[in-house]
TrEMBL record:
It comes from the Bacteria. Its cofactor is Mg(2+). Residues 8-130 form the tRNAHis guanylyltransferase catalytic domain. InterPro entries: Thg1_C_dom, tRNAHis_GuaTrfase_cat, tRNAHis_GuaTrfase_Thg1, tRNAHis_GuaTrfase_Thg1_sf. Keywords: GTP-binding, Magnesium, Metal-binding, Nucleotide-binding, Nucleotidyltransferase, Transferase, tRNA processing. The keyword Ligase does not apply. It comes from Chryseolinea serpens. Its EC number is 2.7.7.79. Residues 135-230 form the Thg1 C-terminal domain. Gene3D superfamilies: 3.30.70.3000. This is tRNA(His) guanylyltransferase. Belongs to the tRNA(His) guanylyltransferase family. GO terms for molecular function: GTP binding; magnesium ion binding; tRNA guanylyltransferase activity. The keyword Nucleotide-binding applies.
């Protein structure tokens, strides 16, 4: 068979699973550490429930993804997950889902492994969203999920410290309301409201304009130039203020 014919014949199979994210839809990618319960509990010696070295490795991984050749206007990380909002006009690889997913998962796994010195692998999914409100809801959802997980994780580890086994601690928390969990923490001297914002709401990464002065080489006059700088926000605002922060990212230009 001639190469051209063989090529044509095989490409049909190769392209069978290809899917494009339709133009006009927002692209969000969410990456999640694979089997990180084992990694954080058995393979690494981490602070519980939250560890600074782990958090910083996740932030470095998010920064790396935002600098991996795509136009990403917002990065969000909490626990072992990362969400990325693409510029609405992103057209890399013709918006092929398999390209986005495989590149992001590969880049994240490589950077995280480098940061912590142990094998850390990420999965990745693409979430196409049709309008601004759903993008805001998406990030509200991840943020609220982080809050629930933080409350749960603090309660869980306090029970473990008291000597309860993993299954006993899990059972004790089953069916408990948010108020009950808050009270439980209060009894051991922890006010949930006073915990660091990055634990309760995650960390946001986005571009802000920074003004710097420079000298125009043509006439040696001082000029002010504005350039984009990546900001790592450890204290994400709550409710409507967070919505505003996300809405701003929808029209943001990447550098
Ligand atoms: N000790 C510690 N554990 C953390 C920290 N951040 C995340 N984790 C743990 O990371 C795990 C993430 O959980 P999941 O993503 O739900 O579960 P997983 O084991 O990764 O499973 P899959 O995602 O389905 O592969 C949880 O067990 C968290 O307790 C941290 O800062 N310190
Ligand atoms: Mg995971």
């Amino acid at each position: 068979m001639k190469f051209e014919m063989l090529d044509k014949k095989m490409r049909v199979f190769e392209q069978n699973m290809d899917q494009l994210v339709l133009p006009g839809l927002y692209i969000i990618a969410r990456l999640d550490g694979r089997g990180f319960t084992k990694l954080t509990k058995e393979r690494l010696d981490l602070e519980r429930p939250f560890d600074l070295r782990f958090r910083d490795a996740m932030i470095e991984t998010t920064k790396h993804l935002m600098d991996a050749g795509f136009k990403i206007t917002y990065g969000y990380t909490g626990s072992d997950e990362i969400s990325l909002l693409f510029d609405k006009n992103e057209n890399s690889f013709g918006r092929k889902a398999r390209k986005l997913v495989s590149i992001l998962a590969g880049e994240a796994s490589a950077r995280f492994t480098q940061a912590l010195g142990t094998l850390g692998v990420f999965d990745c999914r693409i979430i196409p969203l049709p309008n601004d409100d759903l993008v805001v809801d998406y990030f509200r959802w991840r943020c609220e999920d982080a809050s629930r997980n933080a409350l749960n994780a603090w309660c869980y580890w306090k029970l473990r410290e008291k000597g309860l086994s993993a299954s006993e601690a899990t059972k004790q928390l089953e069916g408990r309301s948010v108020a009950e969990k808050n009270e439980m923490l209060f009894q051991v001297g922890i006010n949930y409201n006073d915990l660091p914002a990055w634990q309760k709401r995650g960390v946001g990464l986005f571009y802000t304009d920074m003004e710097t002065t420079s000298v125009n080489p043509m006439d040696n006059r001082e000029i002010t130039v504005s350039r984009k700088q990546l900001t790592v926000e450890m204290e994400l605002p709550r409710s409507t203020e967070y919505d505003i922060l996300i809405k701003k990212r929808l029209t943001e230009q990447t550098p």
